[in-house]
Known about the structure:
It is a single chain. The protein is mainly β. It has six domains: 44-142, Alpha-Beta Plaits, CATH 3.30.70; 171-519, Rossmann fold; 536-635, Immunoglobulin-like (Sandwich), CATH 2.60.40; 643-731, Immunoglobulins (Immunoglobulin-like), CATH 2.60.40; 738-824, Immunoglobulins (Immunoglobulin-like); 831-908, Immunoglobulin-like, CATH 2.60.40. Helix content is 11%, strand content 33%. The strands form 16 sheets. Strands 11, 12, 13, 14, 15, 17, 18 and 19 form an eight-stranded mixed β-sheet that branches. It has a four-stranded antiparallel β-sheet with strand order 6-7-3-8, covered by helices on one side. α6 runs parallel beside α9 (460-478) and α7 packs parallel to α8.
Amino acid sequence: MKYLYHYLFLTTSLILLGNCTKDTLPGTDTTTPPSLETDTGAEAFEGWIRVKFKSGNDEIAPVVTKSGALSTGLASVDNAALALGARQMKRVFPPAGRFEERTRKEGLHLWYDLYFDESIPVSKAVSDFRQLPEVAVAEPIYKASLIHPSAPVEVSETTTISRASQNAPYNDPLLSNQWHYDNDGTLPDALAGADINLFRAWEITQGSPEVIVAVVDGGVDYAHEDLQGNVVNPAELNGQPGIDDDGNGYIDDFYGWNFIEDNNQIEVDNHGTHVAGTIAAENNNGIGVCGVAGGHGNHTGTRIISCQIFGTRNGQEVSGNSAPAIKYAADAGAVICQNSWGYTNATSMPRSDQEAIEYFIKYAGTDENGNQTGPMKGGIVIFAAGNEDLDYKTYPACYENVLSVAAIAPDFTKSWYSNYADWVDIAAPGGTYTSGGKYATECAVYSTITNNKYGYLQGTSMACPHVSGIAALIVSKFAAPGFTPDQVWAHLTKRTRAIGLYNPSYLNKLGSGLADAYMALAEDQGIAPEKVARLECSQTAGAMAVTWPVSADEDDGTADHYLLYWNTVPLENFDPDNPPAGTQSASVPGTRNLQPGESMSHTLTGIAGETRYYVAIIASDAWGNRSAATTTSVVTPVNEPPVITRESGDGIIAVGYNQTRSVTFRLSDPEGYGCTYTLDDPSGSSTSKEENGRVRITITNYKRPPGTYTMRLTATDLGGAVTTLDIPLTLEANQPPQLTAPLENVYFSSLQEVQTLYFSSNFSDERGAAAITYTLDYDDQALYITPQNRGFKIAPLRYGPAEVTVTARDEEGLTSTASFQVMSRDYTREVDLYPNPVQDKLSIRMGKEVSGEIRIRAVAPSGQIVWDGQAAISPFAPASVDLSALSGGSYTLWIEYQGSKISRNIIKL
């Protein structure tokens, strides 16, 4: 788990990227810091790097000469810039007005952005500048990404869902849509209490306009009906136009700053507006939704400053400067820095971001002299953990000194998209609505979007502002001289609700637990809940239902959670701090919507049959004040094994090559507690999915060895009883491509003609015609053939017949062949007679259109008809006439076809 450094000791120890240390604050060292390798995984901007000069180069003043060269006054820098075709260099953190002195003290004035020829690789530019003696750091600029897995589902500002908040404290009509504040369990797949416990927290505080949250994100819609007046910098809005009224170096930053275009024109965005609404939408105004720290009406809640680092340019989404945005937030008066963004695939922390974050942590809430002027001294930086459903380091969220937030669904489980890791600090509702169709749209997070609208979004982006809002409530309540972000961090992370019971696969990966606004604000009164009145256990094996009434708690209403213990040895006079050997335990969260005396239950698993079990329960509040133990015992019956039933067909499952087949099995536990399953498939062809007590096995026979196999389905109940079922499976072999239609012959009427042939309609394959490749065998003296897209271009090289053999090959190399004839003939010739002179059989070829029967007569010079008959002819099969009986000499041959006559002379040998 990460932790926030105590600021009193920050000057003596600071971790850099988790494994490098130095003895002074960022920017004050005079030695070269550990190098940061150019990250090949993250996408960097082209033609742009960031450079920090070493101390002693304080007064660099980059200018562009008349020749277009960049001049800094440092020869080596100018030469390196010239080699890159550099066109501009400017300070990353611009002159900061009355905060310039501390900006220089931290060395932030030494950071410069260098813009150069985009055709030159960024890695070369970084390498070139790292080698310069005046340079302490050179790094690429990563492209930041907003963290959300879906577009907003817009809902009319007058639409509410069929869920009523019976105890809603404010008159905002859409508050009932915000289950993430007070979840009564009526949503599909929801569990009561899977929320931030906000209604009870509002009984303590609702926020304060003295607390400013910087939203580093897309631009916030400051004119939104539910945010108007809460997104504002009063000193500038009430000051003189064109004057830096608050002295932070930014002129007329009425609502914040656009760090893409470097001006005060905020480009409003759904994502940033949704985040801001969760933190500070106006409460009790009779409009729309509520913010976590949105006050109780009349702008009594937390204020927002928009630090825009995402937007559009020429219709394209662009991201801007995160480091100066975070630094600006501190100088603009914010004490909480909200960040729902990150760097995709980055494997290191940009040094400029790190130093900006440390600046915010140290200087937020103070004036230029270091005196506390805000509600606390210093700032807290909060990041969304990311939406890749992965356990890996994602930056900046995993940086040691920021608080990172994972997301949960309305049933306490990890949201399907949320990252999880040991560096995550806390979890909060991020909602979900695309997990296999399990959750409805209204199970996402509901908040403001642009143009006076409201909508649902899901993501750790949506979880993060819940925590920022709770942080704002904490600062509102405990604001005092000397109050520090350390204390905010402790209130947030040490007063959470346990969710490990619902997330056994993510133990220690979702932070300290679910954020709880009430617990973060409440104080320990030292009063334990009442002892559990009675404890009942079902007389079952495998699993056992334990039931008890909710315990009252004098100061907290009801117990926060219950500690269950069980063993096969007596638990009389039970001491939870010294339990008997072999004692198992579970912590069961309480349920806020239940009143004292109403029933709760939990299921114990791994319960053996024919055994006496002893069970104890203790009620506890959030601070660990515990009641006395209540105990009972029960003897379990025989544990019956699960039952597996095939729901369709029987016998061998046969699957053709490249075919998919599914079969379903029903699993049942005689005790009624369900069971788990495993599937062993030696063929490696199957996948399985369990839903509602049924296992659907899907077999895909693709690139698997053919043959007969035996799959084994094993069901195990919660007590360890096992049932197995062998399932015979046959995977049929891949077959070669099949000829489904004969190949057509090709006729050319001249040597200039070209045709393109396709064979996809002639051959079929289990993988489809597109999976077949073709090779052609032919006489390359007679034909020219070349591939053309998915076909072949063919042209004749000479007149006469030719044959082409086509080999069709599937992706595993199996083949089949077929042939077609090619005839090339000069269309200007009516008839060809060969051989001429002829000894016995004479062949006759005619045009492409001649097909059928022709009449042939041979006439001697005397005029006598010496041969008269018919012969079959086609474009690819010449007519054949047997003239062997004729005497040698010259003859006239008459050929008749459909009323036309042609005469040619022949010589008979």
